[in-house]
Amino acid sequence: MKRRLFNPGVFRSALKYSIPVLLGYTAIGVAFGLLLSDAGYPWWIALVMSLWMYAGAGQFIASGLFAAGTTLWEACLVQFIVNARHMAYGLTMNSRYRHAGPLKPYLIFSLTDETFALLSSVPEELAPGETRAERDLFMFYVSALDQFYWTAGSVAGAAAGALIPFNMEGISFALTALFVVLMIEQILRVKKPGIFIVSAVAALLGVFLLPERVSLLSSMALSLVLAVLMERKRAGS
Question: Can you give the residue range of the structural domain that contains 206?
Answer without folding.
Answer: 192-237
